[in-house]
Recover the amino acids of this structure.
C-alpha cells in the first residue's frame, strides 16, 4: 500500500474572463503517492498546468481542499504557501528559470539555504547531485548565460532536489530542449525517481510521458482517465503500446 | 523631424511615471532657481530704485549740536568738495533710544525729525506709506509695522533716559535711515510732539546732513573725511554717520543668506533631476533594446533616435520649468514678506523676463547635455545586437558574495549580491545621500548655532556681546569703574569702545578700542596672529587686509583729526558689523591719535540680575554722565528673532525637501529594480522565498551605498561646513567660522536618513506582493 502524499477533494479553479467565469478545473478528487512518477497529460488548455500550480501551492484553488500529509494547504496565505513550497516541494520549469545574476552553485544554494542552515552539509549535497547529473566543478562556477540548455535544465533539477523534497514538480521540463538534451533530462528524472523521489510531471509529449508509472489524462478540467504503466524499463514496447492505447481511448 | 516627434510622443505615453517624476524635479528646480535669480538679480536693485525714487543720500551724518555756525561750516565743507552733487541740512534731535519690537527690544540711535520738515527735504526724502487715525504722534519706518505696532496703537519709546508714549500715526519708507541696521533710525514726530520733546530736552538738538555724491562708491571716503573734519573742529561732538556702501550691504544680509541657500538647494534638485533623466534613458535603452534594434533595422538613424529622446525630455523639462518659474511667483509674496522685514525696503513683485529666460536656458542646457551623454550608447547599438535584447551569448561576471563561503545570512547575502550588480543604482544613491548629508549638516549646524543657542552666530555676526553696554563721559570713568568693582552684580567690566579712524591710503575704518583684548568675551574675532597688546600695534579686518594686500607684521598709518601714527599689524580680525572695514587698537594706541570724550564699557552681569533694572540704576547713579545704557541681550533678541524664524523655515524646508528627494530617488531605483528583477522575484517566490524576505532583500540591497555615502557625507560635511560657511559669508568680512558641529544631532540625523531610506524602500517594494509565481510560469 503506497503512502498518500497529497490529496485533493472537489478541487476547482475558475478564472474571470471579461466578466464571465471560465472553469479550468472541475471537482477534482486526486491522490498522489510516495515514490510515484505521475504524469499529467492533456491537450492544450485542458488545465494540466493549472492543476500542477494548485497541487504545488503555486496557486490557490477557487473551491475544494488540498491536503498535504496532515496539513490543509489550500487555506494557507501566500507566505504560508511559500514556506510549504520550500519545505516540501521541488520545481523544474520548462523555461528553467535559473537566477541570471548568480553562479550555478549559488542558484542551488540559494534554494537550499532557505531550509537548511548548515552550508557545509548543503554544499556537499549539492556536489553529490551535480555529480549525479554530470555537472563538473568548473560548470558549477559558471553563470546561467554560460550554460547550454541541457546543462541549465540539469542544474534546475539539482536546484529542485537540493532540499530533498517530498514531491518534485516538473512543468514540461523538456519543452524548451532539443531531443538529445531532452532525453538526458528525462533520464535524470527517471534515475532520481528510481531512487525513491516522487515526481509529478506535466507534459504533452508521449515520449516523456512514457517515463511515468501513473498517467492522468485531463480534459476540460476533469481527470478523464488514469493509466498505470508500472516501473519504467527502457525500450519496453509493450509499455509504449499501453500508453498509446490509453491516449487513443482518451481521444488524444 | 516628424519621425522624432512621433517617437517622443510614443515614449511619453509609455513612461507616464517617469515623466511625472522628472516633471516634479524640474518644476522644483525651476521654482527655486527663479526665486534665487529674482532675489539675487532684482531684489537688491530695488534698493537702488528706491534710493533713486527718494533722491536718497550717499552719506548721512547726524551731528549732535546746533547753531548756524556749525551748519555754515558743514555747508562750506560740502560745497568745497568737488564730489558733492547735492545736499540737505536740517534741524533734528538725536539720541539713543529703544522700543519693544518683535518680542525683544529695538535699540538704536534715533534721529528725530518734524514731519513737515522731513517731507520737505530735497535729499533723503521719505514717503509715507500708511497714515490715518491720530493727528498727533509718531511715524515709524515701515519695517516696524508688526502685529504689535499698527496705526492708532500707543507705543512707548525710550529716548535717552525718558519714556515717551506716542500714538502711531503712520509708517514711512526711508532708504538710508529706515531700519536698525543703518547705524541710525529716523523717527518722525508731528509738529506738537516734536516741540514737546524739544522742550523736555531729553534728546540733544542735532543737524542732519544728507549728501548725494557724483560717485556713490566714494561714500565711505567722504564719510570719513566729514567725520574727521567735524571732530577736528568740534572735538566734543557726537556724530552718527553711514554711507551708501554700508547701508546697501547691511540691509541685504538676510537676502544674501536666503538666496544662497535657495540657490544651493536649486542646483541640488537639478542635479538629482539630471541623474534621474540619465538613469531613465539608460533604463529605457536597456528595456527597449529590441525596439531600438527594430527601428534601426527599419532605417531610423541614431541621430533620429537620440533626437526623439532630446525632444521628449527637453519638451517636458521646458514645460515643467515654465510652470515651476510661474509657481515661484506664487511663493514669492511669502518670501518677500520675510525679506522686507529685514531690508525694510518695500518690494513690488513684478514679472522678470531675464531670470525666466536664464532658468529656461540653464535647465534646457543641462537637460540637453544629460540626455546627450546618456543616449550616446544608441550610436553603438548594432541592429542585430539590439534585436537580441542587447545580451551577449556569454556574460562573464564576477561572483560577488559566493553563498558557499560567505558568513552572512542568506537574505543579507542575496541583498549584497544585488548591491554588487547595481553599480548605477549605487552611484545614484551615493550622489543623493552625499548632497543630502551636506545639507543635513548645514541644517544641524544652523539649528545648533542659530535656533538653539545663538552665541556662535552672534559672535560671528555681531562680534562682541555682553549683557550690558554703558556709554559714559570720560570724566566719570574712575568713579564708574570703582562702582563696578564694588557692585557684586557685575562679574566683569571692560572697555570696548568703537570710534572711527582713517587708514592713510585707504578708507575710514571702525576702530574698536580695548585696554586688554584678552578680557573680551569673544576671543574668536582674531583669526590670524594675535590681538594688539602694545600701543604701536593694531589688528585689521582680514577682508580689508586682503583687499589692500596687507600682511601680519606690515606697518599701516592711521590718522584721526589730522594726527597720523604708524602701527604694526599684529593680527587679522573678522567683524561683519562694518562689512569688514575694521581695526582693533589698544586704548593707549588710540590715544596717540586723539582723545576720547566718551567710553563704552561692556558688562557681564551675574545670572539673576535684571539687566534693565541694573541699567536704570546706573543711569540714576551717574545721571548726566551716562549717555546710554543698553541691554545688549534684549537688542539682540529683537533683531535675531527674524533670523531665527528665517532659519527655522529654511531648516524645516530642507528636511521636507530631503525626505521628498530621497523618496523620489528610491521610487525610481526600486521601480527600475523591480522591472529588471521581476522574473527573479517570481522565481524566488516559486522556490519558497516569502514576500517579506524579498522586500527585505530589495531594501537592504540599497543600504550599503546609502550607509557608506551618508557616513562619508556626514563626516566630510562636518569637516568642511565651517570653511564652506566662511566662504559663503566672505562678502561680509567673515573668513573663518567656528560654529559648533552638533555631532549627536548629525549622528541621529544620519541614522534617521538611513532608516528613512530603508523604510521608504520597504514601502516602495510592497509591490512585490503582487508578483505571483503562477504568473511567471504562465508567462504573464
Amino acid at each position: 500500500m503506497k503512502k498518500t502524499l497529497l490529496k485533493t477533494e472537489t478541487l476547482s479553479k475558475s478564472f474571470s474572463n471579461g466578466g464571465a467565469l471560465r472553469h479550468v478545473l472541475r471537482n477534482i478528487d486526486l491522490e498522489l503517492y510516495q515514490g510515484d512518477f505521475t504524469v499529467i497529460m492533456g491537450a492544450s488548455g485542458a488545465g494540466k498546468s493549472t492543476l500542477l500550480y494548485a497541487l504545488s501551492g503555486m496557486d490557490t484553488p477557487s473551491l475544494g481542499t488540498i491536503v498535504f500529509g496532515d496539513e490543509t494547504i489550500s487555506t494557507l496565505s501566500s507566505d504560508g504557501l511559500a514556506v510549504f513550497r520550500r519545505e516540501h516541494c521541488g520545481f523544474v520549469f520548462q523555461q528553467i528559470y535559473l537566477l541570471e545574476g548568480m553562479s550555478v552553485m549559488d542558484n542551488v544554494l540559494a534554494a537550499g539555504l532557505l531550509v537548511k542552515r548548515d552550508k557545509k552539509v548543503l554544499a556537499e549535497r549539492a556536489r553529490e547531485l551535480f555529480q549525479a547529473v554530470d555537472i563538473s566543478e568548473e560548470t558549477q562556477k559558471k553563470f546561467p548565460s554560460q550554460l547550454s540548455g541541457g546543462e541549465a535544465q540539469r542544474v534546475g533539477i539539482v536546484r529542485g532536489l537540493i532540499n530533498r523534497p517530498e514531491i518534485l514538480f516538473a512543468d514540461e521540463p523538456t519543452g524548451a530542449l532539443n531531443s538529445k538534451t531532452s532525453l538526458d533530462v528525462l533520464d535524470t528524472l527517471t534515475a532520481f525517481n528510481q531512487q525513491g523521489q516522487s515526481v509529478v510531471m506535466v507534459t504533452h509529449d508521449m515520449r516523456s510521458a512514457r517515463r511515468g508509472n501513473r498517467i492522468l489524462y485531463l480534459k476540460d478540467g476533469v481527470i478523464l482517465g488514469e493509466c498505470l504503466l508500472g516501473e519504467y524499463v527502457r525500450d519496453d514496447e509493450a509499455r509504449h503500446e499501453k500508453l498509446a492505447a490509453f491516449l487513443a481511448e482518451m481521444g488524444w | 523631424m516628424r519621425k522624432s516627434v512621433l517617437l517622443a510622443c510614443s515614449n511619453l505615453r509609455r513612461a507616464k511615471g517617469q515623466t511625472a517624476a522628472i516633471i516634479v524635479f524640474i518644476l522644483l528646480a525651476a521654482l527655486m532657481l527663479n526665486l534665487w535669480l529674482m532675489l539675487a538679480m532684482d531684489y537688491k536693485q530695488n534698493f537702488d530704485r528706491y534710493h533713486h525714487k527718494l533722491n536718497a543720500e550717499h552719506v548721512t551724518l547726524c551731528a549732535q549740536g546746533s547753531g548756524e555756525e556749525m551748519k555754515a561750516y558743514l555747508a562750506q565743507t560740502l560745497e568745497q568738495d568737488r564730489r558733492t552733487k547735492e545736499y540737505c541740512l536740517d534741524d533734528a534731535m538725536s539720541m539713543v533710544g529703544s522700543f519693544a519690537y518683535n518680542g525683544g527690544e529695538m535699540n538704536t540711535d534715533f534721529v528725530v525729525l518734524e514731519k513737515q520738515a522731513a517731507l520737505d527735504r530735497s535729499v533723503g526724502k521719505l514717503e509715507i506709506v500708511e497714515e490715518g487715525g491720530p493727528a498727533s504722534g509718531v511715524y515709524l519706518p515701515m519695517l516696524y509695522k508688526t502685529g504689535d505696532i499698527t496705526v492708532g496703537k500707543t507705543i512707548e519709546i525710550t529716548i535717552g533716559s525718558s519714556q515717551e508714549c506716542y500714538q502711531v500715526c503712520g509708517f514711512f519708507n526711508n532708504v538710508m535711515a529706515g531700519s536698525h541696521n543703518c547705524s541710525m533710525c529716523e523717527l518722525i514726530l508731528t509738529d506738537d510732539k516734536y516741540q514737546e520733546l524739544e522742550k523736555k530736552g531729553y534728546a540733544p538738538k542735532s543737524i542732519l546732513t544728507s549728501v548725494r555724491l557724483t560717485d556713490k562708491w566714494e561714500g565711505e571716503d567722504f564719510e570719513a573725511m566729514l567725520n574727521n573734519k567735524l571732530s577736528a573742529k568740534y572735538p566734543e561732538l557726537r556724530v552718527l554717520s553711514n554711507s551708501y556702501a554700508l547701508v546697501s550691504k547691511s540691509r541685504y544680509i538676510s537676502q544674501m543668506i536666503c538666496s544662497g541657500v535657495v540657490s544651493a538647494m536649486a542646483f541640488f534638485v537639478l542635479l538629482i533631476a539630471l541623474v534621474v533623466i540619465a538613469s531613465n534613458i539608460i533604463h529605457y535603452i536597456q528595456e527597449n533594446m529590441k525596439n531600438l534594434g527594430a527601428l534601426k533595422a527599419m532605417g531610423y538613424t541614431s541621430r533620429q533616435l537620440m533626437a526623439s529622446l532630446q525632444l521628449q525630455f527637453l519638451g517636458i523639462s521646458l514645460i515643467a520649468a515654465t510652470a515651476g518659474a510661474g509657481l515661484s511667483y506664487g511663493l514669492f509674496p511669502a518670501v518677500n514678506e520675510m525679506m522686507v522685514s529685514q531690508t525694510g525696503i518695500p518690494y513690488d513683485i513684478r514679472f522678470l523676463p531675464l531670470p525666466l529666460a536664464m532658468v529656461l536656458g540653464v535647465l534646457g542646457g543641462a537637460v540637453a547635455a544629460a540626455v546627450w551623454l546618456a543616449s550616446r550608447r544608441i550610436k553603438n547599438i548594432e541592429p542585430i545586437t539590439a534585436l537580441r535584447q542587447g545580451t551577449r551569448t556569454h556574460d562573464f561576471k564576477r561572483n560577488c558574495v559566493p553563498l558557499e563561503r560567505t558568513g552572512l545570512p542568506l537574505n543579507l547575502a542575496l541583498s549584497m549580491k544585488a548591491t554588487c550588480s547595481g553599480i548605477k543604482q549605487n552611484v545614484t544613491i551615493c550622489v543623493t545621500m552625499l548632497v543630502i548629508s551636506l545639507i543635513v549638516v548645514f541644517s544641524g549646524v544652523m539649528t545648533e548655532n542659530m535656533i538653539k543657542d545663538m552665541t556662535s552666530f552672534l559672535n560671528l555676526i555681531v562680534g562682541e556681546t555682553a549683557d550690558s553696554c554703558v556709554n559714559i563721559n570720560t570724566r566719570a570713568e574712575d568713579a564708574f569703574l570703582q562702582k563696578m568693582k564694588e557692585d557684586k552684580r557685575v562679574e566683569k567690566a571692560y572697555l570696548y569702545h568703537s570710534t572711527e579712524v582713517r587708514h592713510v591710503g585707504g578708507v575710514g575704518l571702525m576702530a574698536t578700542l580695548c585696554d586688554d583684548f584678552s578680557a573680551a568675551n569673544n576671543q574668536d574675532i582674531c583669526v590670524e596672529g594675535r590681538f594688539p597688546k602694545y600701543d604701536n600695534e593694531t589688528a585689521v579686518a582680514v577682508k580689508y587686509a586682503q583687499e589692500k594686500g596687507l600682511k601680519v607684521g606690515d606697518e599701516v598709518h592711521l590718522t584721526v583729526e589730522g594726527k597720523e601714527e604708524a602701527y604694526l599689524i599684529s593680527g587679522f580680525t573678522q567683524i561683519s558689523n562694518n562689512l569688514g572695514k575694521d581695526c582693533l587698537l589698544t586704548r593707549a594706541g588710540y590715544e596717540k591719535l586723539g582723545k576720547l570724550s566718551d567710553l563704552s564699557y561692556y558688562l557681564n552681569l551675574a545670572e539673576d540680575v535684571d539687566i534693565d533694572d541694573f541699567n536704570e540704576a546706573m543711569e540714576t547713579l551717574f545721571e548726566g554722565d551716562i549717555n546710554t545704557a543698553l541691554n545688549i541681550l534684549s537688542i539682540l533678541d529683537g533683531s535675531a528673532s527674524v533670523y531665527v524664524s528665517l532659519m527655522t523655515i529654511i531648516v524645516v524646508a530642507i528636511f521636507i525637501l530631503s525626505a521628498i528627494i530621497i523618496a523620489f530617488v528610491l521610487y525610481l531605483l526600486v521601480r527600475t529594480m523591480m522591472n529588471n528583477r521581476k522574473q527573479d522575484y517570481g522565481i524566488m517566490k516559486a522556490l519558497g522565498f516569502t514576500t517579506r524576505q524579498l522586500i527585505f532583500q530589495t531594501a537592504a540591497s540599497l543600504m550599503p551605498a546609502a550607509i557608506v555615502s551618508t557616513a562619508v557625507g556626514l563626516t566630510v560635511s562636518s569637516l568642511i561646513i565651517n570653511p564652506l560657511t566662511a566662504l559663503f559669508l566672505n562678502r561680509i568680512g567673515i573668513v573663518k567660522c567656528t560654529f559648533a558641529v552638533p555631532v549627536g544631532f548629525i549622528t541621529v540625523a544620519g541614522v534617521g536618513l538611513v532608516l528613512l531610506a530603508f523604510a521608504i524602500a520597504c514601502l516602495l517594494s510592497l509591490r512585490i506582493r503582487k508578483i505571483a509565481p503562477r504568473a511567471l510560469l504562465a508567462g504573464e
Q: What stands out?
A: Residues 152 and 379 of chain B are 74 Å apart (CA to CA). The first strand of chain B starts at residue 59 and ends at 64. The two ends of chain B are 36 Å apart (CA to CA).
